[in-house]
Design goal:
This protein is α+β, with helices and mostly antiparallel strands. The protein has 3 helices and 4 strands. The protein has helices at about 25-30, 50-55, 65-70, and strands at about 10-15, 15-20, 40-45, 50. Strands 2-1-3-4 form a 4-stranded antiparallel sheet. The longest helix has 9 residues, at about 25-30. It is globular, with a radius of gyration of 11 Å. The N and C termini lie far apart (about 25 Å).
């Protein structure tokens, strides 16, 4: 996790935003199968990703460009 400014995340469900949560909380919810890996997440800097992409970005360093490339693949 980035020590200088850890991100906060909102879970995006249909027309609602839940949160904010830190990365650790979202990982815990996924491990307990409370949320699916395909659920959309919005980072505090505005970048959107799935829970699976958040889990893959272990050090919270992905920028918008790399997330777009990852989604296109």
């Amino acid at each position: 996790m980035r020590a200088d400014s850890p991100y906060q995340y909102h879970l995006l469900l249909a027309d609602r935003q839940l949160g904010p949560y830190d990365r650790r909380t979202i990982v815990g919810m996924h491990v307990r199968k409370l949320i699916d890996a395909t659920l959309a997440v919005q980072r505090s800097d505005g970048h959107r990703m799935t829970v699976a992409q958040l889990l893959a970005d272990r050090f919270e360093m992905a920028d918008g460009e790399s997330l777009q490339r990852q989604a296109a693949s």
